[in-house]
Amino acid sequence: MRERQLRARDMLRGDLEGEELERYVEERVVMTRFEQMLNWSRANSMFPLSFGLACCAIEGIPMSAVTARYDIARFGAEAGRASPRQADFIVLSGRVSIKMAPVVRRLYDQMLEPKWAIAMGACSSSGGMFSNYAVVKGADKFMPIDVHIPGCPPRPEAVLYGFNKLQRKIQGNPDQGWRQRYNAAGTEEWARGGPRGEPSREAAEAYEEARRLIRA
Measured between alpha carbons, how far is 154 from 63 in angstroms, rounded to an integer? Predict the structure, then answer.
């Protein structure tokens, strides 16, 4: 500690020269792009929407994951927001009924860009055990979903893992998903306007931009 203080003093005085000055600068200066710094800041200061649908909410954010055992505050996501206009991402934790789907979509639309969504549990991802007319078979049928977390219910460790995948996606390093492996980007029903529709122009441009970032 004392050695670093003396080197800092010498640098301020202008006594460091040559290799010592270069080594001092290399140890303390980081070069990056503004976009990368901005995405790193976004990924490590995520505010979840204080919102739950059903039983999975007890296992996820912002309930079990904020306890001392799991402590999602390590990743800067412990500050749950009661207003969608102050939240960065929404966690759909539980089954989504047909009556509740328009409400969830309105909450998502009220969130400010950039925003993200996590489908937590089997029910919000695919309808789960509810094979009936009242439950939507997957939240991606009416809104975009960034990360799916399987389980009934998923363990808090799985929730943290899914959140870490979302962080990597925000930082521009998305993990390869099944849509990319099978060249199925643009097949989501919400993007096509229905099972037999075509992607909207905005959705197609977003997919092309995502493919460009992955190839880069």
Answer: 13
Structure tokens at 28: 């303390």
Residue 85: in which H helix or E strand, if any?
none
pLDDT, greater one: 195 or 94:
94
- Assigned CATH topology for domain 47-170: Rossmann fold (3.40.50)
- The DSSP 8-state label assigned to residue 107 in this structure reads H
Residue 5 C-alpha from the chain's centroid: 40
Smallest CA-to-CA distance from 166 within 13, 44, 80, 60 is with 44
Q: What is the per-residue pLDDT for 159?
A: 84
Domain boundary assignment for the chain: 2-31, 47-170, 176-216
Please give the model's pTM, rounded to 2 decimal places: 0.67
- Per-residue pLDDT for 32 more than 60? yes
Q: Which of 18-27, 84-93, 99-108 has the lowest mean pLDDT?
A: 18-27
Tell me the C-alpha to C-alpha distance, in Å, between residue 45 and each of 41, 76, 121, 179: 6, 5, 24, 28
